[in-house]
Amino acid sequence: MFQQVETERSDLGRGREESFLLLFEANPVPMWIWDHETLRFLAVNDAAIAHYGYSREQFMGMTPMELKPAKDHGGIREIAQGKTGYQEGRTSQHITANGDLLDVAIYGRSLVYGGRPASLVAIIDITARKRAEDEARSTREFLSTVIENVPVSIVVKDAADLRYVLVNRAAEEYLGLPREEIVGKTVHDIFPPASADTILARDRDLLQIEDCSTLDGYQVETPGNGIRNVNSKRLSIRGVDGQPQYLLVMTEDVTEKLAAEAKIRHLAHHDPLTHLPNRASFNSHLSETIDRAEAAAGCFSALCIDLDRFKEINDVFGHGIGDGLLCQVAARMREVSGIAFIARLGGDEFTIILQGCADTAATFAEDLLQRMSGDFEVEGQRLRAGLSIGIAVYPGDGKNATTLLSNADAALYRAKADGRGTIRFFEVEMDKRLREYRAIQQDLQSAIARGELALHYQPQAKIGGEIIGFEALLRWQHPVRGAIPPMTFIPVAEESGLIVPIGEWVLREACREAATWTTPLTVAVNLSPVQFRHGDLHTLVHTILLETGLPATRLELEITEGVLISDFTRTISVLRRLKALGVRIAMDDFGTGYSSLSYLQSFPFDKIKIDQSFISNLEHNQQSAAIVRAVVSLAHGLALPVIAEGVENSAQLEFLARETVDEIQGYLLGRPHPIGHYMEATGHQPGVATRTAIAS
Ligand code: C2E
Ligand code: MG
Ligand code: MG
Question: Which DSSP category does 84 fall into?
């Protein structure tokens, strides 16, 4: 280190000068003397030459200013002018001969050297120390940034009194307190007493027994963040004496993670709308139930449930209300079901697994129907939702899941066919019918392409006998099953949507045929409600009329009340547009459905067709006669012509004539046949027939 030097402003004595020079020259610390007047170096020692890399000659031609950045130049001048002295150990930077920057601490004294006012300066190179300090500082900053920002709560407590000394941001969030309210406190100062006791016991255990402990999956009541699910790790940090100095606690708050996992698990096994178990959990529950029943030689019942007319509710009121209804239905099912397992498989399809055999299932199903019979109120709409229920009982109706379910489904299918709000148990016969149904559905898909469909035409006449038109009736000649009646395959076509392409084929075929007739008779074509719901019926009819050249006035479209039920407003608008084309609209099968007067009023139908069931019963049933009378007077009151279907004999014809029915259709005039057959039988082109047709 630099030693004290003579500072008196007087010439040094000779002996003292020598020892000073010795001290100067031989000193391992870089030193120099510079002249206050010229500012030039007067002397430099070997250490300075070695350290800075300038030769002695170079030094002697320089001033200290050349070693310094410009900002420090003023300081040198002030010292030279005697305005200030040296500040002990002041740090600065010096430039070496090869351009390196050194961090230096400067120690200097003013003195008289060789008779001149000068400064003796000693330099301590602190570059390495400063770099080490800078590195330590930046490491500290780096670590505290990491600690501050890790998403795990980190707290450090003093091992002596277990007061908090460090808290990171995640810890503030986890504890629900700002760090100012934590640092310096003990757990008892901030936690609820029970939590504080537990934490303190854990902290003490760690300090006394082990250096590190991990605890997963427990709950903590925090000071300001409620109850949290956490995993934690404790570490003791020992001082140089080997004794615990600090306690580090890292806590991972997994509350949200657990909730998200639970939600994902719930979604995987539940239907998001009703929160009932979904198909996947139903399947696994069913197979577990089968395993248990098999082991215990017990029985249980599987119920397949379908909401009656749900599709109509969706169509008429919209999906929002449909969804609301499903939720309420699910809630009522839950109320009735007790411990039974209910699942929603999709749409309006529900299933229930119930412990107990047929008797239990029957009582349960009755209760369920009863509970559903009350009105539902969804968004201000009063709705009814009947159920159809099919039941299969394990093991009699199926020993494995697939058979049991498909049999419960067959029973449901039967229940629906037998009328709404019905319960049916599986019977072997149903299975056969359901299989047949599926086979028909399968074959129907290729029926058009394979040319198996045909139209037969049935004449319609004025009551006096003049033929006025033909109703086109669809026939399916199945290659194996033979002729399949429309009453069998049309519902299948409607359910599968196949009626849309089939209906289009019928319409085109009938119009094409009628356009070839020499007499301008009408052709009547039946439309299914499904055709109104799918596609653009108006455009289809218009296109086919243009395509076939049939005048619109010769086409009569027959609809049933079912068309109006599903979406009244839309259907009426389609009907109006069809009518605007010039096409006529007849109400088919009147008397069998709702026979709502409001339907007759809401649209100007061109004709009412009385259903054949009333005509065939005329002779045996007084009521049928009364109904026919009532319908005729109603229709005439509305100025609508009436056609009676299913007229088979002259007694019926006479009755209808007396009741002033306008037109007839039925076997009396001829059964439906390909049009060529009709011409052969009557010897007439369509339309030329007269009363003789009735007599034939
Ligand atoms: P619908 O439109 O009421 O047709 C009248 C049905 O009564 C026809 O039965 C016809 O053969 C039958 N019928 C007519 N006169 C008599 C009679 O004097 N005695 C008896 N016993 N029956 C008579 P079909 O052809 O079996 O058709 C049944 C139903 O199938 C039709 O009833 C109609 O609803 C539907 N259908 C037929 N063809 C089509 C079609 O192309 N499209 C659609 N959507 N439905 C069709
Ligand atoms: Mg018809
Ligand atoms: Mg009819």
Answer: S
**The domain boundary residue, chosen from 426, 460, 490:** 426
How many angstroms is it from 648 CA to the middle of ligand 1? 14
Do 375 and 492 belong together in one domain?
A: no
* Domain shared by 454 and 598, yes or no: yes
Q: d(Cα 493, Cα 443) in Å, to the nearest integer?
A: 11
| Segment-wise mean pLDDT, segments of 10 residues, the chain, 696 residues | 40 68 90 94 95 95 90 86 88 92 94 91 94 93 92 95 96 96 96 94 90 91 95 93 93 94 90 93 95 93 92 83 94 90 93 92 92 89 88 94 94 86 86 81 91 95 93 95 92 89 96 93 95 90 97 96 80 94 94 73 91 89 88 90 95 94 94 77 53 37
Q: What's 651's domain CATH number?
A: 3.20.20.450
Q: Give the predicted TM-score (pTM) of the model.
A: 0.53
Q: Is the CB of 39 under 6 A from ligand 1?
A: no
Laid out side by side, the sheet with 244-253 consists of 164-167, 153-158, 244-253, 227-238, 212-221
Cis peptide leading into 28, omega within 30 of 0? Answer: no
Residues 505 and 377 occupy one common structural domain: no
Cβ neighbours for 550, distance < 8 A, ≥ 6 positions apart: 511, 512, 514, 515, 523, 544
Residue 528 CA, closest ligand 1 atom number: 44
In whole angstroms, give the CA distance from residue 354 to residue 305: 13
Q: How far apart are CA 332 and CA 368, in angstroms?
A: 8
Closest alpha carbon to 203 in 266, 152, 157: 157
Structure tokens at 171: 């810890």
Q: Which of 489, 612, 616, 667 to mutate to test the pocket of ligand 1 (most atoms within 8 A of CB)?
A: 612
**Strand 607-610 to strand 153-158: parallel, antiparallel, or no bridges (unpaired)?**
unpaired
**How many CB atoms are located within 10 Å of the residue 138 CB?**
10
Q: Distance (Å, rounded) from C-alpha 48 to C-alpha 54? A: 8
| DSSP per residue, 431-453 | HHHHHHHHHHHHHHTTTTTTT-E
Give the CA distances from residue 445 to residues 203, 493, 503, in Å, rounded to whole numbers and listed in that order.
Answer: 75, 9, 13
Question: Can you tell me the distance from the alpha carbon of 559 to that of 603, in angstroms, rounded to the nearest whole number?
Answer: 12
Q: Provide the domain count of the chain.
A: 4
Cα–Cα dist 659/427, whole Å: 47
Ligand 1 pocket, 531 CB below 6 A? no
